[in-house]
Design brief:
Length: 597
Amino acid sequence: METEPPLYPMAGATGPQGDEDRLGVPDGPEAPLDELVGAYPNYNEEEEERRYYRRKRLGVLKNVLAASAGGMLTYGVYLGLLQMQLILHYDETYREVKYGNMGLPDIDSKMLMGINVTPIAALLYTPVLIRFFGTKWMMFLAVGIYALFVSTNYWERYYTLVPSAVALGMAIVPLWASMGNYITRMAQKYHEYSHYKEQDGQGLKQRPPRGSHAPYLLVFQAIFYSFFHLSFACAQLPMIYFLNHYLYDLNHTLYNVQSCGTNSHGILSGFNKTVLRTLPRSGNLIVVESVLMAVAFLAMLLVLGLCGAAYRPTEEIDLRSVGWGNIFQLPFKHVRDYRLRHLVPFFIYSGFEVLFACTGIALGYGVCSVGLERLAYLLVAYSLGASAASLLGLLGLWLPRPVPLVAGAGVHLLLTFVLFFWAPVPRVLQHSWILYVAAALWGVGSALNKTGLSTLLGILYEDKERQDFIFTIYHWWQAVAIFTVYLGSSLPMKAKLAVLLVTLVAAAVSYLRMEQKLRRGVAPRQPRIPRPQHKVRGYRYLEEDNSDESDAEGEHGDGAEEEAPPAGPRPGPELAGLGRRPCPYEQAQGGDGPEEQ
């Protein structure tokens, strides 16, 4: 009985045709190694390269969406909890029954002071923290501090609320600076992965032209801020589905309110001290806070698990290796750049307008006239208007660069004039539709402002060595503006509108002046970024082109005579191969490789 031939020929075995297979290639022990373990015969290098960079681009999109969703959930939880907490603590019956003589209003005032005052010092430590932890890990740490603030509301005491508020205030500027830097870096990486075939004459990848990543940056910033502005709507969910069921109607809460809008003074003057019809049960409050805590934890997981690194490991080491003293000084040295000086009024106005939307329009015009039970819907209108208008920033792909910023300033200028002469009547609902339109239009202006400023900074400062400094300066000025609004919360509404109007006009004029200088070709004065200095020379690079090479090494390698190596045995193992570069292990051991005989 004849044996059947094997299904697959065995390597080294002699085929039925002797020592050669059907293609005429020897199939025995003399067969070429490439025929046995060579590359896949149908391998298409160009197609595999295209698929590789396509996966890279999808990874960048995943990073942008994860960072945007994480920021939305973080701020939605933070704003929703803070709003619910302040309303509950405002009611004097709730304070007396739940906490007795603990002094809850004093604790709330110190908590707000910690949130608003602490960011003033952020310019001193934000760049150091971002360079030390890295952009992604700084985002994760800051989101974790926001989650810590949420967790302290399980046990509301002075020693839990105030320290967590101070920690949260310290994390505000680092979170926003790292997020702005992260979105800008993602746009640059997406451009790099989309134009991977662009090479110079020698076959090496050439540096992309300045501003080439601007279209991607515009799209990514529009996506980020459309997600972020939805956080104001997410923050109202505890109010709509839980707290509104316990509130008095406007006839009770606004009984002693005499004037609203432009005629009002401070925040809700004459508002009733009891706003809760019945007190919520402690078990229900714990359930709501647990849901908020779970969402905050989900935001942490999004940033940790789905956000990739903003820089390569070698780039992050280079960013740290310029010296911690230089990292500390460089934000202050960037003040000499006239572009930043011209944009400072816009930075300040950006802080003014977002807080005016939450306190001026929502409280001074909205709650003062239509009651606390409609506060959530006013902020939802603002949120949806801002989120939808963030996509209007995409018009910058076809319009001149100043158009989105100037258009947002124009919308706010028109609304400020209208609000300056409008005083709604308390407890009258016929004009409530005007409030919703005003809130939505203010959101449109806010979206154009935030999207335009972040995109402009990413275009003007596209060097990866400067981006964290620039976004730190931007959000620090925002924090200073928010602190100023906190200090002036008791001013009359007309004074607040006047300050807002003057700042807006100054910001628009200063920005247009900056654009005029750029068109004239006035060169900005930027501080020099020091070269990276490493303690171990070339410990990550085996190529001749060492980007970590210090100035002294560069001069030594340009023709200077090399010193003779010291005599004696080397600490590392003796390896064969003369004239080669030392491996990283030998460099770490202090050796320079084998000596030439």
